[in-house]
Amino acid sequence: MSISFRKEIKDLVAYKPGKPIEDVKREYGLTDVIKLASNENPLGASPKVKEALKKVMDEFALYPDGNCTELKNAISKKFNVQPTQVLPSAGSDEMVDMIAKTFVNHGDEIIMADITFPRYIATTKMMGGIPVIVPLKNWTYDLDGILEKITPKTKIIWLCNPNNPTGTMVTENEILNFLKKVPSNVIVIYDEAYNEYVTRDDYPKNSVNLLKDYSNLIILKTFSKMYGLASLRVGYTISSEEIIANINKIRCPFDVNRFAQAAALAALQDEDFVKKCYELNKQGKEYLYSEFDKMGFEYPKSETNHIFVNVEQDAQQVFLELQKRGMIIRPMMGTWIRVSIGTMEQNKLFIEKLKEVLKK
Prior knowledge:
Helix content is about 40%, strand content about 15%. The mean pLDDT is about 95. It is of the alpha/beta class. Helix 3 (about 70-80) runs parallel beside helix 9 (about 260-270), helix 4 packs parallel to helix 5 and helix 10 runs parallel beside helix 12. The termini are far apart. The radius of gyration is 21 Å and the shape is globular.
């Protein structure tokens, strides 16, 4: 008799992350490889983070604070909410998984975009939910199209703003008008992993204020992008006390490790580092725009630290050829790739290598 697995996972495929630098070095015998595939911060983390980690280096044998008390308090103070409205997690990835486990029943309809973070659909299927897919409009979330898909079976709506991988955003007015029309029993999950990179004034920078009027809203944030703590896996969620308390019931104990908590606390204290990263990203984005314009490439304007661009040749082949030259990007679909914005030196090297590949 063979082992049986849950039928809900039969057609799922494992998440495929950006290719590691170490793999490319081994495969091609390279010593220098630049990774612009996973939207990591090219400046790393704040010096304050490194100092904070040194102070806990002798605490490997100790379990972390399972409640993340200090981190919760710091986040609640930053956003003027109660600590009971905050729940840290092992990156936003863990929270996406926990939300599905908390809310999704078999047969529930979960609305999401067709081109967005793939874990939304994976966790929906994992729990036996029914994905309801709404195509992007001009590479941006079609909020009217989402509203049209709401039925009595709708449980959750996923919004990624700015969106990954397209980098596009919806405005504060659009979000406000949208939330007014969503039934109060439908949960709206607002994933703003790239919030800190946004340059436009019409973006809802203070989304936490919306919680006062919308108890069905869940806001996801992360330390992986602007704060440069991707390897430590730490993110956090802000919502109503009721929602946070229920998600907390199925959270794994000690999910945010001692080092992640110390690093996140230190990261929150260095606004100068955040400003430096913001300016570097803005400069790099404008440079890449100008180069793509010269090459006649189509791309939607990005409010993140990555650009979704049509290089007019097979994306998978471009990905492979760039790897041979020590450059890792992310092939997306057809002739579209996603490239993270690096340092100016890395951006210029990417353009140089891309031109080589496209000529070839």
